[in-house]
Every structure is written in C-alpha cells, then in structure tokens.
What does this fold into?
Amino acid sequence: MQGKRLIKKTGLYLIGNLSSRIMTAIIIPIYAFYIQANDLGYFDYAQTIMGIVIPIIFVAIWEAILRFLLYENDDLYKTKIIATSVGFIIFIMGIFIIGLIIYGSFFATETKSISLIGLMFITNGVSQIWLYYARAFGENKLYITAGLAGTVIQFVSVLLFICILRYGLNGLFITSILGQLSIFVVLEYRLHILSKFKFKYFEFRMLMSLLKFSAPLVLNLSSAWILSGFGRFLIVQKLGNEMNGLFSFANKFSILITMMGSIVTMAVIEEAIITAKTKGFDSDFTKTIEFIFKLFMELTLLAVPAINIFYAFIKSTDYYVSFNYASWLLLAAVFTTMASNMGSVFQAINKTQYQFFTTMIGAIVSVLTSYVLISAMGIYAVILGQILGALLMLLSRYVIINKYIDFKIKWNPILIKSGLFIGIVITSINSLLLVNIIILLVITVVLSYLNSSYLLNGYNLVMKKLRSV
It folds into this structure.
C-alpha cells in the first residue's frame, strides 16, 4: 500500500464527508441551546433505526458498486453494472414508498413526523449510493464539491429551521433531508447516472453477482449499527427519550472520532482492494494500521480535557449532566474504527462472511452487557457494552485475519496509550476547568514533540502546495 496515495484519499474523503459527518459535531452548541433533550433523543432514535434499515432495504449495494466498478476496465461491462444497480435502486425505492404509505395509514398518529422520517431514509440512502458511484469513477473533486454543497445547505438549514423558525424536532429532520438531497443533486448533475439507466443493459445475472457480494455486508453493516444502536433502544425503553437525548448529546463528541475513522476506512478499503489485486499484502499495510491506531488513541487523549472544557460553558443547559458519559464513549469509537479498518482486509480478499461473524460477536457482547446491567448502571451499562463489544470485534478480526495473511501488530504502545486514556479520563472528569486546561496544554506539548517529524513534514507539504498555487 502506498502511504502517500492513502493520505491523499483520506484528505479528499475528509472534505467530501463534511455534510453528513462533521456537521454533526459543529452544531453541538446549537443542540445544547435550541433543542430539547426529548426531541434530540427521538431524532437520534430515528437515525439509529435508519442506520439499521437502510443497508437491509438497499442490500448494501453501494459496496458491490464500488468493488465491481473499481475492478472493471471494460466500458460496456461498467454500463451494465450501472444500469443494473440503478434499476434495482429504483425498484427498491418504489417498494419502500408504498410500504411507508401503508405504514402511515395505520400508525401515523403513533409515530411522530412519519413523512419526514421516510424522506430522511430515502435521501440518506440514495446520497450514499451516489457518493459511492463518484468514488468508483475516481471523481474525487466532484466528491468534495458534493460534500461541501451538503455542508453549506445543512448549516444554513440549521440556522433557518432550528435557530430562527424554532421548528425543533421537525427542523432536525428537515436539515438532514436538505443536506443529503443537495449531495444527490450535485452528483447526479455531473455524473448523469439516471440517464445511463437503459433497460436493455439491465441483467438479472449481473444483479445476482452484485447482491451476492453485498448481501453478507448487509448483515455486517446492520449488526454494526446494532452494536451501537441497541443501547439507544434500551435507553428509550428503560429510561425514556430524555435520557437518550443526553446519551446522544454525549455521543456527539465520539462522532468526531467515528467520522474521521470512517473516512480513513474508506481510503483503506480502496487501497486494500488495489493492493490485493496488484502485489498482495505486505508489512507496509500492517504498519499503516498500527500508525492509524496510534493516531486515534492520541486524538482521544487530546479530546478528553477538551470535552470537559466545553461542558464548563454549557452548565446552564439540560445537557450538562451528560459530561460524565462523553469521554468514555471515545474509547468505543476508537475500537470500532480500528475494527472497521481491519475489516477492510476481508473485503479485499473476498472473505466478507467474516466481517458479519466478527461483528455479531461484538454485537452479542454489547447487547448482553447493556441489557443485564442497565437497571444497576443506567447509561454506563450501554457505554460499557459498546466498549467491550467493539474491543472483541477488533480482537476477533485480528485473530482471523492472521489465518490468511501475515498481520502482526505491536500491541504494547497501544496498551500503554489505553492505560493513559483511562487515567486521564478519571482525572479530568473530577477536576476543575483550570486543571483541564493545564492537562490539555501538557498533552498537546508532549504529543507535538513526539510527532514533530510528522508535523514538520505536513507543514512543508502544505507550504509547497501553497507556493505552487
């Protein structure tokens, strides 16, 4: 795997995913002052259901689109892939809309904002598929443009519908819909995917090949959401929407880690596929994963005091009581991210069934831990369940991968940083604002010194790019 190519793709995907990822973190202060905990809990509950349902509805076909188009060089074959996948997507959307109408006829009074929830499901699923088309075609600049368009539209929508018009819960749904819809419009305007759909190129055999690849990943993706989402279901049922709102708010900070992790994972998956196709895996791939693990652990060390400093400024809001949860959720985010990066190997060597198997291990542990301890520990039971589930998913993937390729990671640095993380969390959440500021400054100085060569190389690279403009 070529490190420079991976870094370049990671940077591109970082920019391109601003709409659906970074915006969630940027608008945390707006949630704190303009959204009630009960409404945020309901919205988060709907998004959790969406994360589980969307891969099932569309059979995670975006994964097959990426792999098949990346592997294929024949233009006619690519045309058949596009026509077949688009035909399937249109059919699925029709079925979903009919099902939504039927459901709304019977349960409209019991489910708040059912129409907006349905639109959020559709726009989120379709925009994600179109982003994968852009990736498959190598349209990196377009990918960035679409992401930025979604960012601008969503942020303006937040200001309008939440801050000015005070739409509350409906405003949350509307901003999500408009952000994802704008991504789809920009991508379709440039790629013309729908115009490439011609029924004569639709092949049932091709569809079966696509679904055969993506179907195991449906279980993996849905199970991954169960790993993080079951806790929300449990909190809503046992503790109520308001407590889920507090949990959701605290979890917004770990979303920063998850966001960055998912972006890195996208680049790692593509590079893993290309590497497996050309020269096979070598020690460079293992070193890359080690470096990513080290980087994310160091980011969590910085994040802990920074989060507690932020909470000091929202003491007057309902969400302040959630500060004890936020830091611990970072650990689950890191473990989940690294498990996803290791899972890229399964896709590259066409062993996707192990992604599902290992995800189920994590999901079962998470569900059992949360369910058994929820009465005694409350929200902490869910947090513990997520940490243990993600950790076991990570370790089980590591063991299975080593049965197929040589993939030996040096664990001692990771274990040391994990111990430091626990110590810093305990110290930080029990300390005053001034102490947290000092902790943040000390960690920043130490990590800057330890990573000075990387920072210097990055600075030189940026300056070189600026001079060439």
Remarks:
- The chain is about 85% helix and 0% strand.
- The CA atoms of residues 64 and 212 lie 9 Å apart.
- The first helix runs from residue 3 to 16.
- The chain has a mean pLDDT of 85.
